[in-house]
Amino acid sequence: MMLAQDAAANLSSGWFLEHAWLIAVVPGIGFFLILAVGKRIKDIKVASLTIPGGGSLFGVASMATSLVLAAGTAYQWIQRVDSAGRTNGALGSFGSSITGMLRAEGEGNYITPVVKSYTWWRQGGATFTIGSHIDGLSMIILLLVAFISTLVQIYSLEYLRGDRRYTHFFAALTLFAGGMLTMVLADNMVQIILGWEIMGLCSFMLIGHWWEDAANSRAALKAFFTVRVGDVGLLVGVSIIFFSANSFATRNGFGSGFDLQGINAWAQSGTASHTAILWGAVALFIACIGKSGQFPLHTWLPDAMAGPTPVSSLLHSSTMVVAGVYLVARIYPVFHTGLSINVAGSHFNLIAIIGGITIIIAAALAFVQTDIKKVLAYSTVSQLGYMMMGLGVGAWTPAVFHIFTHAFFKCCLFLCAGSVSHSGSHHSFEMKKDMGGLRKKMPITFACWMVSTAALCGVPFFSGFFSKDEIIDNAHHAGYDVFWIIGLAGAFMTTAYMTRATYLTFFGKPRGAAAVEHDDAHGDAHDPHDLDVDDAHAVQPHVAGGDHGSTTDDHAHQPVMAMARTVGDVADIHGDVDADDAKEAVHADDAHHAAKHDVHHGPHESPALITVPLIILATLALFSGYLNAAAFSIHKFTDWVSPIGGQFFPKIGEASGELPEAAFKWVNALPSILLVIAGFAVSAAVCISIYGDNASPLKGITKRIVPLRWGYKFLFNKYYLDVLYEKIIVHGVAYPVSAAAYWFNQNVLDGIVNGAGKWARKSGLWIYKNVDQRVVDGTVNGSGAAARGLGSALRPVQSGKVNQYGALLFSAAAVAALVLILVNT
Amino acid sequence: MLISEFLLLGAVLFCIGVYGVIVRKNAVLVLMSIELILNSVNINLLAFSLKYNDISGQTFALYIIAVAAAEVGVGLALVLLIYRNKRNISLDELSEMKG
Description:
The structure holds 2 protein chains of 2 kinds.
Chain A: H1 5-9, H2 15-18, H3 21-37, E1 44-46, E2 49-51, H4 56-83, H5 88-92, H6 96-105, E3 114-123, E4 126-134, H7 136-159, H8 166-185, H9 189-207, H10 214-251, H11 260-269, H12 274-291, H13 300-303, H14 309-317, H15 321-330, H16 332-338, H17 350-366, H18 372-392, H19 396-424, H20 431-434, H21 443-457, H22 463-477, H23 481-506, H24 553-556, H25 558-573, H26 580-596, H27 608-623, H28 636-641, H29 666-691, H30 701-704, H31 706-716, H32 721-794, H33 802-824
Chain B: H1 3-23, H2 27-52, H3 56-86, H4 91-94
Helix pairs in contact in B: 1-2, 2-3
């Protein structure tokens, strides 16, 4: 805008940068198309290939279009960066100090974002705009979201085939991505709220996709309400920032206090009131806690596993949970100034503390999960903690880079889990019951899983290493030693729980559904201690049928089957007696199922629509880290994405004359590498002794030793946070409120409503009698009668007799002549 | 000048013509009455033409004669067709209206 006009003059722009708003509009159009015509489109069979109907292709096509547009935008943004001559990467190879000097020059190399802003509406002197704001950060997230969404939609074509709400699923999935893209594109806070809320709504629809099961709709409600608690913070924070920054922003030509650049410049200007910016930052961060599943509002994320696996995958990798991290990164100056990040002598701040706590508690919870998706869910929470902690210690670029790499390997892990359940364990996600030994049956899924796991754990030369290690390293470098240790501990725990999950899923002896006989697998083999824990596992309905392609009437009975089986599972976990009928139905159906498909009844590799996205994502999980591999002095990502300190971005670390980010040294990476190895070794040894065949003193250790049993129960019940929220907070606060609200409703509101109703009825009757019957009907009848009378009066004129016509003609002429004479004389 | 006599003749012819049009039932007689009306107009035109010594009145009368001839031609053709269809040329019989 106003700044760096000189620099902007020779920066290249382009069609994609100018029309970036299309990226978010296309999924919106796709959404309406799917809803409008989706249900009328039937599957088309071409030879052996089935083209899926139900409007799903509109979703895939709109996401692919967005991907192309986002790729064009990314390409032109990189050209723009290159045209500014910001050659950190090239110089970086000579030594980081040169890079540091170049960056210290700051201002001149600032790449002006491409901002397109249109007035949405005006009110009370404030102008609300809607538009696009393309800079390095939004460019990379747009690309990421479009890419992951496209792959997930392709995967869903197969995964949800035959689902009874196939069309609505794709509509919601497309709108979900559209909401995230709207938010990422935003050039002002109002648009961020818009995208944020669209995502909240869509996550509710998608998590509760199989709402016939009470547990699923409960999970959807939980996700919606927990995030909503945080959203209050968003509204409060945006309001605080608006009223504090508005005069500064208007004076300096940024439009209003909603404008992102205006807010950033205001936070950097030093004129901001510290109280305002502190509480604005805190309120906004509460919103991010809710959205990004940070402690203590992380409880909704694991329950969100109730949705179909592609939803979990999308939700946990690139949309929704990343939104909170994105918001912090987007208006980083507000947090940087407001929460005093990187101020000399400070060792703690809100973001880093919350991030650090989240890393540890989520990683600890991942150890006691038996549901593979829940392990991954807690892993996501933990990794989001890393991102937040990175932002909290001033490691902006590594944190954003971690968003980027994490999206690929976490998406891949979820899709692997989906693939395992789809084809390997007969739609179960229980690792202890229904998995094990699948590595030989599903080689592609296994390979992708291993690559992504290595990336997640931060094994050197996989992508996670280059992002997560940078965060840990920077925490140390910036003087936040506590968080450095937390980061290292997190790396150890990550490796350990992922080793456990891998062992349970792919190694050892096949159990339950992963063994061949499917019909015995369901409903019986619950661990005894599951029963005394009140909180149920996420219950996965088995809607997508076991063997597609071979018969079509298989689809017809699926809804019934899914219902029956789900009811059976729920009842079983709660130890309910009435469920026997439902269970029998399940068994009968299973037997029917197994008898019918005797060709493919064992675990097998998933079809290509599932494995191809897996392979693509695993490849990226392996290689995406090399965009910013500090170990090899590659700084492409930093060049393209990270803004240079100045008016719109804090000069991180430059106050103390240090480099903005830590220079990479293998010595610094050594502790985390060693811890990863240690984590793997310890966990593998423990897993083999606990879950293996041989007798071991460790077997059942959590049941024999009392403190360990307590610890296990404490973790299993998720620190009793759900109990706290639901029993104490909700019951303590909501019940009196709802009782009062009920009284008010019954006595006051109903009184008013009934009174209004009676009055309306009386006045309606009066109007009927007087106005309607007399005036209106009178007018209508009168005009009818008048027309009738006139008609019959004029009827004789049209006699059809020529002589009469002639007489009329001449008499008229005579009259006219008479008039003429009288007038003229 | 005999102008008032001419005009009187024209007025008488006009009145006879109008009487014929209104009263006569025979279509041919009605046509003839119309001819009378037209010619009464012609007489008026010629009278004023003579009085003001202007040739355009006589020219106009010639035009009217030509148009009247055409009109009678069309009229007689209509009458002929009516006769073929109805075997009758009484105008009262032609009406199909109910009024």
